Structure formats: structure tokens, C-alpha cells
Amino acid sequence: MIKVFVALGANLEQPIQQLQSAVSALTAIAESEAIEVSNFYQSTPMGDVIQPDYINAVASFETTQPPLALLDQLQAIENNQGRVRIERWGPRTLDLDLLLYGDQTVDHPRLTIPHYGMKQRSFVLIPLADLVPQLILPCGTSIKQLISTKMRSELQQVHLDH
């Protein structure tokens, strides 16, 4: 079994509920239906497209699926929740990015692991650190080394009603 980390993001059609639905869908594909989920955070969008703020989180679970099969499952979850790919860094009902697949690296036209932009993204690193504060990335870098004070100031934790 391989431990994987998936970034979740949404900024359309009730983003908190979109992430909660995605967590349920990820739980269904996780081995033993066991999943860990970070806090939810609000972040400003990347790029120049005017759009609402995002809600972001990271989930972790174990799988026996190979990376591309898992990617297909993640994209099916996005599609089931109304994901439409119109413009890069545009608004979306759900975005699921496979960040880490154990300590493996993958360089495939459809998939790069570790995720190519994760080291620069507060909305990925901070939720990832919620789950595994001592995480060392496959390149040997500690996640703590990557998180700056500026990154922490970019996010606002969302308090969920349980």
C-alpha cells in the first residue's frame, strides 16, 4: 500500500460543501476507507482571472492503485462534481491534485509527482503540514523549511460547523 496526499480546492457552487463531498468520494476509494483531512483554508486565487476566493485542504489515504489509475479516479470525482475545464487557473467547482505518491517520483505527460507547483503554494503546504508536520519531500526538503511567515499570512482557516 502507498500513502498518497491529494490537494482539494473549490471556489464555485458552495466550495465548503464541494470539499466535503470530495472527502466522502475520496474515502470511498481509499484502502480500508480510512482518510485524514487537514483543516480547511480560504485563499486568494492564483493568476489574473477575477474570481471568488478558494477553499483548500489536503487529504491523505492509502491506496493500491497505480498513479495513473488514481489520477483517473480523481478526475472522475471532479467531473461528478461538475468540474468544467475552461481556462487555466480559472474558477472551478472542484480541483483535486495528486501531490505525493509515497516517496515516488512520476514524470508522465499526464502526471508529475511530486506536484510541480506544490513548493510555492501556501494553500498546499500549510494543509499538508497540518497532516504531517515533519514531512520530508522526495527531494529531501523538509516541509517546515518551505513554509514562510508570508505563506501563513496568505491563508485564513475556515471553521466548519459540525
TrEMBL record:
Q: Does the keyword 4Fe-4S apply?
A: no
GO terms (molecular function) for this protein are: 2-amino-4-hydroxy-6-hydroxymethyldihydropteridine diphosphokinase activity; ATP binding; kinase activity
Q: Which UniProt keywords apply?
A: ATP-binding, Folate biosynthesis, Kinase, Nucleotide-binding, Transferase
* PROSITE patterns, A to Z: HPPK (PS00794)
Coiled-coil spans in chain: none
Query: Which sequence ranges are marked TM in the entry?
Result: none
Q: In which pathway does it act?
A: Cofactor biosynthesis; tetrahydrofolate biosynthesis; 2-amino-4-hydroxy-6-hydroxymethyl-7,8-dihydropteridine diphosphate from 7,8-dihydroneopterin triphosphate: step 4/4
Superkingdom of the source?
Answer: Bacteria
Keyword DNA-binding applies: no
Enzyme Commission code(s) on record: 2.7.6.3
> What residue stretches are annotated with the 7,8-dihydro-6-hydroxymethylpterin-pyrophosphokinase domain?
88-99
Function according to Swiss-Prot or TrEMBL? Catalyzes the transfer of pyrophosphate from adenosine triphosphate (ATP) to 6-hydroxymethyl-7,8-dihydropterin, an enzymatic step in folate biosynthesis pathway.
Q: Which family does it belong to?
A: Belongs to the HPPK family.
What PANTHER family has UniProt attached to this entry?
A: 2-AMINO-4-HYDROXY-6-HYDROXYMETHYLDIHYDROPTERIDINE PYROPHOSPHOKINASE (PTHR43071:SF1)
- What protein does this entry describe? 2-amino-4-hydroxy-6-hydroxymethyldihydropteridine pyrophosphokinase
Q: Which gene encodes it?
A: folK
